[in-house]
Design goal:
The protein has about 300 residues and is mainly alpha-helical. It has one domain: Na+/H+ antiporter like fold, CATH 1.20.1530.20. About 80% of the residues lie in helices and about 0% in strands. It is built from twelve helices and no strands. Helix 5 crosses helix 7, helix 5 crosses helix 8 and helix 10 packs antiparallel against helix 12. The longest helix has about 40 residues. The chain is globular and about 55 Å long.
Amino acid sequence: MSILSILLPDFLLIVLGFVLYRRAGWGLEFWTGLEKLVYFVLFPSLLFYATSRTPFDFSQSGRLLQTALLTTAAGIALGWLAKPLFKVGPMVFESAVQTAFRFNSYIALAVASRLAGDAGTALMALIIGFAVPICNMAAVHALAHRKGGLGMALAKNPLLVATVSGVLCNLAGLHLPEIANATLSRLGNASIALGLITVGAGLRGNDTARPNGIAAYFIGVKLLVLPAIAYFVGRWLQLPPLHLQLAVMFCALPTASSAYVLAARMGGDGPFVAWLVSAGTVASAVTLPLWLLLVT
């Protein structure tokens, strides 16, 4: 399968969401409801279905997780190391630093599915399940003096709950009735396309002046530095080819729009984060194919 055929369909869906949001006239209520449907119902169904059914070789999966999580930790460190370098307004750095390490789960699972079907989806879901609490804790920590409740937020996170539940069912050897599996499969199939469309709908333009130096730094770390770290760590740990591909592609993902939601809810600079997320997503249309070319 060519790199173009792996990534182009996903970015076309993002473009479709961008166009529909601006031209269809369906209103903000429609898009908010669609995003909630994907996040709370469809996407967790995919994660549970994939992780509960796919056999894991934990000797190899463990090295995959090591690579992804070590690189995520490096992203958190590189983000905070930049604080003395940039003089920006109150809450700008604290809001934006999360874009150096948070990731878009919708694009992650879309790419993994294209690369290796259900097996790729399950492995990427495993990474997401471990990375979500780490990234969320690091992101909230930056804004923690504004709002608490991190533990409860993680316990209620539908992506984390679905992944952990699926892995536990897998390890326990439990099997759902075929009707339940078929229903979850269909819900999961709908999640990727609709999730990517909501990514496109969430893209925002740069309508005000932005601190471009810090923006370039965070986007560069997320799209260029982290996948390079993942590549060298994965080679050092002797990951199999598929695992190396998944680790690098996970670390090369743009930031999710939930970064904007967090910043806005916790008194940060939401518009700047929204622009960073959008700019990173657009830039990833160039960087993701380059990284995939390197590890294919």
